[in-house]
Amino acid sequence: MRIVLLSDIHSNLVALETVLEAAGSFDALWCVGDTIGYGPRPNECIELMRKHAQIAITGNHDLACLGRIDLRDFNPDARKANLWNGKQLLPENRAWLDPLPPSFHVDKQFFLAHGSPREPVWEYVLMPEQAAANFEYFPNQVCVIGHSHIQLGFRMRHGSEHAERFLPEPGETIELHRSTRYFINPGSVGQPRDQDPRAAFAVFDTVHNSIRFHRITYDIAKTQHQMQEAGLPYDLIHRLKFGR
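The chain above was modelled as a monomer; its predicted structure follows.
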């Protein structure tokens, strides 16, 4: 099986459609949160996840758009975009998004969490020390995370107390060794923040027990134009072309 791993779409339909086309044929899709927020096409992005995602979890921006967490926890631009996203939601799309959990136990191998296993909604896992501490909060071999908008991973061998951070190159494949546990962040589809503006995703190959990381160029100007038409904040529009 080929399982597509996505995170942080953020209502960027142009990027999402480009990713789905680049992924080719796949057997399943897992979305690890923040399908909406920031961007200009929340309903269309949810509808594609309703169609393609076998597993989906919620993120902090999803919850904010639904009015389930305090918008004062967000900066003014994010707050304005989340309010706008929430107002656009069709009832059927709100009904799909509302019950999604912030973490999900898939099987013995995989656990999904938007932020981290110990704090699924808010924690950014960016440093090896954080990863090492979070390995204690789930029993599975691999935890797929999002939230930081940075394509990265951590590995820790059984018996070790230290995690190693790695930043994969586009097209790089890593094998999942039985003696090692992992955090995998496929990166952000709709708003990367690692100085690479290309949409990010990953694919898990069950036959080879490996994960391949991808970056794909999409029409950023088209998304920016859609955001301008929606009256979304300038800084959110401008940042897309810089990957920050």
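The mean pLDDT is 97.
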